[in-house]
Write a structure and sequence with these properties.
Layout lengths: L4 E2 L1 H30 L8 H26 L1 E2 L14 E6 L2 E8 L10 E3 L3 H6 L7 E6 L2 E10 L1
Parallel strand pairs: 1-2, 4-5
Antiparallel strand pairs: 3-4, 3-7, 6-7
Helix pairs in contact: 1-2
Length: 152
Amino acid sequence: MGQNYITKNGLEKLKEELELLKKTKMPEVIERIARAKELGDLSENAEYQDAKDEQGFIAGRIAELEHLINKSHVIEQKNNRDYVDIGSTIKVTCDGNKFTYTIVGSNEADPAQGLISNESPIGRSFLGRKKGDKVKVRVPRGEMECEVLEIE
C-alpha cells in the first residue's frame, strides 16, 4: 500500500473518534472492570471478561487511530478543476447512469456516501482524467464505460 491520504474533514473525524475513545469509552470500561472485580471470582465472571475484551478492542482502536493520524498525508484542497486528483469531487456517467464521487484515501472511503478510495478500481480509473475523458472501469460485474462530466 502506498501513502495514506486523508482529507482535513476525514482527519478531524479520526481525531474526534480518538478523543471519544480516550476520554469517554476507555474510562467507562475501566470503571466496569473495577465494578466486576468487586463481584469476586474473576475466572467465572462474565461481566469482567466482557469488559476486559472491550478494553482490548478500545486499546487496539486507539493504537490504530494514533497510527493513522500520525502517518496520513492530509490532502490540500487545491480547487484544481483541470484534472481529477485525490480530494476531487467528480460528476460522471457510467453506462448511462449519473454518479457523484469524491476521491479520498482508502481510510476514508465509504462508497455508500460517494466517497471512493483512490486505490479502488473506480478511483484509480479517474485519477488524472479531465472533463470529457472517457474511461473503461473494471468492476465485479464486468466493465463500465464512464465519462467525466464535471470536476469540482
